[in-house]
Amino acid sequence: MKKILYTATVVSVSLFILFYVIFKVTEIDIFQILYITAMTFSYHCVMRLVVGLGLRLVYKGDYNYNAKWFQQKNFEKKLYKKLNVKQWKAKVPAWSPESFETKYHTLDEIIQSMCNAEVVHEVIMVFSFVPILFAIEYGVPLVFIITSVIAALGDSAFVMIQRYNRPRIVKLLNKKD
């Protein structure tokens, strides 16, 4: 997952710069469309890297997983069952899969990783809507709205996985005590 995001970031930023320069030199409309597309994609890649790194540096495993924010709400069990989270959660790539393995970490450390992953993806979901502001400069707000919604929905899957799994791990941890 890391390699994919790093590669996508380098490629999209490079394409953004390339298409921007070509557009400024030629003023051919297709290059404007290409640079705006690459710019938006670059934003999503860079933002994910910055948010993930920033939150890891700030929190360092200091989450209170008993806080109300991290508690599964009444409607969530039904929602996750309806969305078949149990069936697809293992197929979704993780940034750092070893962070969730008991072979390397205690249950408490895994719960902290789960809280961190949830918060990272929740913050990313919020920042996914920033490109809508690009519509002020470039117009076509629907394009920016659609891409922002799709990006946020993608990250919501990662939030759901953490919120689906964490109660089970907390239950295991409480049994050990």
Short description:
This protein has 177 residues and is an all-alpha fold. The chain is built from 7 helices and no strands.
List the helices and strands and how they pair.
Elements: H1 2-26, H2 29-59, H3 76-82, H4 85-88, H5 107-127, H6 134-138, H7 141-176
Helix pairs in contact: 1-2, 2-5, 5-7
Structure write-up:
This protein is mostly helical and 177 residues long. 73% of the residues lie in helices and 0% in strands. The chain contains 7 helices and no strands. It has helices at 2-26, 29-59, 76-82, 85-88, 107-127, 134-138, 141-176. Helix 1 (2-26) runs antiparallel to helix 2. The longest helix has 36 residues, at 141-176. The mean pLDDT is 92.
Q: Strand share of the residues?
A: under 5%
Number of helices: 7
What separation lies between the terminal Cα atoms? 35 Å
Q: Quaternary arrangement of the chains shown?
A: single chain
Biggest beta sheet summary: none
Question: Structural class, please?
Answer: mainly alpha
Total beta strands = 0
